[in-house]
Amino acid sequence: MKTDLTNTTSSKVNAALVQARRAIGSPAVGMVLTLVIVTDEANHYDALKAAADASREHPSRILVVIKRPGRSPRERGDSRLDAEVRVGGAEGSGETVLLRLRGELAQHAEAVVLPLLLPDAPVVVWWPVDAPDHPARDPLGALAQRRITDAYAVEQPLEQLAARAASYAPGDTDLAWTRLTPWRAMLAAALDQARAEVTSAVVESEADNPSAELLARWFADRLRVPVEQVVTAGPVVTGVRLRTATGDIHIDRPDGPVATLSIPGQPTRTLALKVRGTADLIAEELRRLDPDEAYAAALRAHVTAPAAGHGQPG
């Protein structure tokens, strides 16, 4: 069921949600959290689609905040809220509300969102593109237990990571880190099998890839070894080498969804290691709402490069 509301208020949006639930005979139960997406007109469709797919695993109330402050004084003076309420149908057991905040109201999004949060349920705020410099101090971010950014979506991703490290607060995370989960799991399992001390590491990726940067920092933090970063044609992270006295532990994914894993003394194996979509990444982040201490440590770590002539990829 879809309801359009023009020049409305949060209380009227809440009333429309209740009415829509009654119309389809589905009470608002079973929803586990409120997901607030802060985006713009150009990016809201893709973000909403990813969130809707993720909500099949995590039934949620999805609030899409689209700020339209206006450029001219006249546009800024036209302060109003337009909303679109969707319940049932393609939304499944969850609810979706598109909130278009125009004029001065765009500067006070928290006042609109706060009355629409599910009572006694966690709040997650996701900025698919332009995130604030300090997510935890942002008025919307302050409402959330979990704040999700994406360094891969900005023009200067490595500068973004530096800003994230400076402003980190428990509950912050970034999809550049989430993209590394399969890599980290495979590398940890490979180290358990190899049982050898790592002397240095190499991360291969496209230029300025934030996931590769975080992976290098993770190695520096956890393994305390020099890390070299090698630029390849991509896409994203294409390979990792962990050097040991008995040979290299090597994961190679030049392209596509398949990678090879080489461990000294063992046959080379083929592994599934596809580039995951945004819906999978958001679904993973919604599984845990506690602070991600590994991300915080990697974010703040400093990479030490190998000495000249050491650690070159073979």
From TrEMBL:
<feature type="domain" description="Glucose-6-phosphate dehydrogenase assembly protein OpcA N-terminal">
    <location>
        <begin position="51"/>
        <end position="165"/>
    </location>
</feature>
<protein>
    <submittedName>
        <fullName>Oxppcycle protein</fullName>
    </submittedName>
</protein>
<dbReference type="InterPro" id="IPR046802">
    <property type="entry name" value="OpcA_G6PD_C"/>
</dbReference>
<dbReference type="Pfam" id="PF20171">
    <property type="entry name" value="OpcA_G6PD_C"/>
</dbReference>
<feature type="domain" description="Glucose-6-phosphate dehydrogenase assembly protein OpcA C-terminal">
    <location>
        <begin position="170"/>
        <end position="299"/>
    </location>
</feature>
<dbReference type="InterPro" id="IPR004555">
    <property type="entry name" value="G6PDH_assembly_OpcA"/>
</dbReference>
<dbReference type="Pfam" id="PF10128">
    <property type="entry name" value="OpcA_G6PD_assem"/>
</dbReference>
<dbReference type="InterPro" id="IPR046801">
    <property type="entry name" value="OpcA_G6PD_N"/>
</dbReference>
